[in-house]
Amino acid sequence: DYMKYKDPKQPLGCRIKDLMKRMTLAEKIGQMVQIERSVATPDVMKQYFIGSVLSGGGSVPAPKASAEAWINMVNEIQKGSLSSRLGIPMIYGIDAVHGHNNVYNATIFPHNVGLGVTRQKIGDATALEVRATGIPYAFAPCIAVCRDPRWGRCYESYSEDPKIVQAMTEIIPGLQGDIPAKSRKGVPFVGGKQKVAACAKHFVGDGGTTLGIDENNTVINSKGLFSIHMPAYYNSINKGVATVMVSYSSWNGEKMHANRDLVTGFLKDKLKFKGFVISDWQGIDRITSPPHANYSYSVEAGVGAGIDMIMVPYAFTEFIDALTNQVKNNIIPMSRIDDAVKRILRIKFIMGLFENPLADLSLVNQLGSQEHRELAREAVRKSLVLLKNGKSANKPLLPLPKKTAKILVAGSHADNLGYQCGGWTITWQGLQGNDLTIGTTIVNAVHNTVDPTTEVVYSENPDAEFVKSQKFSYAIVVVGEPPYAEMYGDSFNLSIPEPGPSTIKNPYLETIDALVAAWLPGTEGQGVADLLFGDYGFTGKLARTWFKTVDQLPMNVGDPHYDPLFPFGFGLTTKATKN
Ligand code: GLC
User: Fold this and answer.
1) Strand 250-251 vs strand 254-255: parallel, antiparallel, or unpaired?
2) How far apart are CA 64 and CA 272, in angstroms?
3) Radius of gyration of the chain from its Cα atoms, rounded to whole angstroms
4) Separation between Cα atoms, residue 28 and residue 176, nearest integer Å
5) What phi and psi, each to the nearest 5 degrees, are found at residue 406?
6) Where does the Glycoside hydrolase family 3 N-terminal domain lie (predicted)?
7) Which of 123, 150, 387, 559 gives the lowest tally of CB atoms within 10 Å of its CB?
8) 558: which residues sit within 8 A by CB, 6+ positions away?
9) Distance (Å, rounded) from C-alpha 218 to C-alpha 212?
10) Predicted local distance difference test score (pLDDT) of residue 119
11) Alpha-carbon gap, residue 326 to 331, rounded angstroms
């Protein structure tokens, strides 16, 4: 019998319809299930008709696994799906949120908080590196509008200003490819084997929670929600974003994972979004508190709200049984299941997954390529913000001369690739040290940049005597936070942990002569030295308000009471040195 759905010459609608009518309830529900790779054996994929697999933060086939090892892992899981009755390919997703950050040797771009080169080029490069490992789906971009920097995920947010976040959705055509001009609004687009399906997250209001508490309650009226947190979803949909991930947070006390009005009523019906909506990790479990306290309610509320794919991610039989039961007892209508499956199949057909379910080795050299690292270096240069330059405007300190007697490089973050990459790097929470992946630390960058006759001395936390005795021409001190992700980064005091502050203070003049915000630059620390020594000028502007004290928060540009140390949009500039 002619399998119309397998024929790429058939119109999309016909393929979906033909396949849907062949599917059993179990095969339909299976498509709505996303499981973690650690439970995704080929047998499980085949037996439960699982539609999707993910790598949780740091979930890798092996430490420092090569692109080829990733491809073999993804292909093995895929073969399980392809051996099922209807052979529907699974879609593998991963958090590539600042480059392909789970993967050893991937290019790690600045986190979103550090604005950079046009995000579209970063999207292009990220798509190539994700595909280099055989993966066709990235849970990015995070288009949170972080309104309180006490939020542990504030660094995942491009800005406190929705207009900047809207502009940064240009990463989506980078990841997915440019949507064809005449496309109908809301219809997703993914342009082939060098592009990936993207994911606008987390819908909606994730960056607006009370006190910045992760996964908490965003208390704001409708006007506020739609003018601050919603705008970038319009841009994402206009750019053909394939998927939208729901936020753990609540809006005025209602869990987003149970919010039918916003997920179905607004996103699907009003904005005509035709891709699929995916839950966050155990997102439906967390509809109740404590989480999982009433799983059948979680399933009914989450699927009923309009979530199409559930990131379970482990107890998939529990989810399948609960949902099957609720469909059989008419608690959840078949029409809801059909809507979800249709959306999931639409993405898989549109992105050519039926035609190309298995990855080949053709892109492995894209992973961590020099070209991508140069792009990341450029992004670092454009992300740095110069907040202070010399004791007075007419005596700027930066750029530093490359030729000088002796330079001290100090601080916890000067020789620590893990610290400069931050969370979501190799592991979920990030790492310290220089062994985690391949990149350039800031002290190495300084070595690479100065004149060969200039002596560079590194000391992580020098004492005052040492500094005085050495007669340094300059000192570059790099301090910051240790890496973290999500709720582990929530902080009520936002102070840099020791020995950071004391390293800045003890051996140096009371006030430092220059101050650069470098954010979380990623693997290409060379971009920092490029600016410090004048190969390029500082151009970056603050995309976030630099507050004076925590008790001013939340305080954002446009607020009536606005008394920052450095205002939104602030940034000193320097010229490149003619050398
Ligand atoms: C995490 C994050 C989400 C991520 C997902 C999968 O908890 O909230 O941003 O995409 O789980 O790792």
Assistant:
1) antiparallel
2) 42
3) 25
4) 26
5) -150, 130
6) 24-347
7) 559
8) none
9) 9
10) 77
11) 5
199 Cα nearest atom in ligand 1:
10
Amino acid identity for residue 97 in this structure:
V
Among 36, 60, 95, 286, which residue has the most ligand 1 atoms within 8 Å of its CB, making it the best to mutate? 95
Atom 3 of ligand 1, nearest CA residue: 280
- Please give the distance, rounded to the nearest whole angstrom, from the Cα atom of residue 376 to the centre of ligand 1: 23
CA of 362 to the centre of ligand 1 (A): 29
Secondary structure of residue 378 in the 3-state scheme: helix
> For residue 60, is pLDDT > 80?
yes
* Ligand 1 pocket check for 137: Cβ under 6 Å: no
Residues in the chain: 579
The alpha helices in 23-135, defined as continuous H runs, are: 25-31, 42-48, 67-82, 119-132
Residue type, 371: E
Q: Determine which helix (DSSP H) or strand (DSSP E) holds 503, and give its type and residue range.
A: helix 500-505
Indicate which residue of 124, 215, 486, 530 is catalytic: 486
Average pLDDT of the chain is 96
Give the phi and the psi of residue 3 in degrees, each rounded to 5.
-85, 85
Which amino acid is it at 218? T
C-alpha of residue 68 to centroid of ligand 1, in Å? 25
Q: Is 423 in the pocket of ligand 1 (CB under 6 A)?
A: no
Using most ligand atoms within 8 A of CB, pick from 94, 203, 243, 281 the residue to mutate for ligand 1. 281
The residue nearest atom 12 of ligand 1, judged by CA position, is 56
Tell me: pLDDT of 377 over 60: yes
Residue type, 126: T
- Let me know if 486 is a catalytic residue: yes
281 lines ligand 1 (CB under 6 A): yes
Q: How many Å lie between the centroid of ligand 1 and the Cα of residue 326?
A: 27
Tell me how far apart the alpha carbons of residues 80 and 40 are, in angstroms, rounded to a whole number.
Answer: 9
CB of 415 closer than 6 angstroms to any ligand 1 atom? no
Instruction: State the distance from the centre of ligand 1 to the C-alpha of 280, rounded, in angstroms.
Output: 6
Are 23 and 86 in contact by the 8 Å Cβ rule? The answer is yes
Q: Write the DSSP assignment of 236-292 as a string of letters.
A: HHHTT-SEEEEPSSEETTEEGGG-HIIIIIIIIIIS---SEEE--TTTTGGGSSSTT
Q: Model confidence over 483-511: pLDDT tens digits?
A: 999 999 999 999 888 888 878 776 554 56
pLDDT single digits (tens) 203-252: 999 999 999 999 999 999 999 999 999 999 999 999 999 999 999 999 99
Question: Could you tell me the sign of the dihedral formed by the alpha carbons of 314, 245, 380, 208, in that order?
Answer: negative
Which residues contact residue 179 at a Cβ distance below 8 angstroms, ignoring those fewer than 6 apart? 173, 189, 238, 239, 240
The first and second tokens of residue 233, run together, are: 């979803």
10 Å CB burial of residue 414 (0-12, 13-18, 19+) is buried
